[in-house]
Every structure is written in structure tokens, then in C-alpha cells.
Design a protein that fits this description.
By secondary structure, the chain is α/β, with parallel strands linked by helices. It is about 45% helix and about 20% strand. The model has no long low-confidence stretch (mean pLDDT about 90).
Length: about 80
């Protein structure tokens, strides 16, 4: 992830767009089921929203620093995996 990508994905503007526009649109008429795996959650904008939908959510992040940050923020609601 380059610096520009990091700045955008960490911004409140991006989080608001994901929560209000992109994720609702992407999940229209989609049944997630009981167990969901998110690949590459990055800063967790989609992860925070997904955490409220299925009974079980796991997120696989390859960047160790991002995985630890997500674990601190969402570890009680989401199983964060580093790999």
C-alpha cells in the first residue's frame, strides 16, 4: 500500500463513503451467511460495518502493523488473522 492509498483509506471521508454508499450497494440482495472471511481489510472501514452483519467474521490482513491495529480496535467482535 503506497502513502496516498494509506492516507485515503484512513480518512473519515473514505470511511463514510464505504458505510453509506459502497458497502450497502455491494451487499444489495446478497446473503452473507453465518461465517464471513474478509480478505485485505487494511484500515478496517468495511470490517467495522461487516462486524455487525454475520454472526462470525474473520479478517485476513497481510500487513502485521495493520493486523495489530485491527486487533486492538475490533478484536472483541472480529477474528483478525495475520498472514
Amino acid at each position: 500500500m503506497n502513502l496516498l492509498h494509506r492516507k485515503l483509506c484512513a480518512s473519515q471521508k473514505w470511511t463514510a463513503a464505504v458505510e453509506k454508499k459502497f458497502l450497502p450497494w455491494a451487499l444489495t440482495e446478497v446473503s452473507l451467511g453465518n461465517n464471513v472471511l474478509e480478505l485485505g481489510p487494511g484500515f478496517g472501514a468495511t470490517t467495522r460495518m461487516l462486524a455487525n452483519l454475520p454472526p462470525s467474521l474473520a479478517a485476513l490482513e497481510m500487513d502485521g502493523k495493520s493486523a495489530r491495529l485491527l486487533e486492538r480496535r475490533l478484536g472483541s467482535r472480529v477474528r483478525i488473522l495475520h498472514g
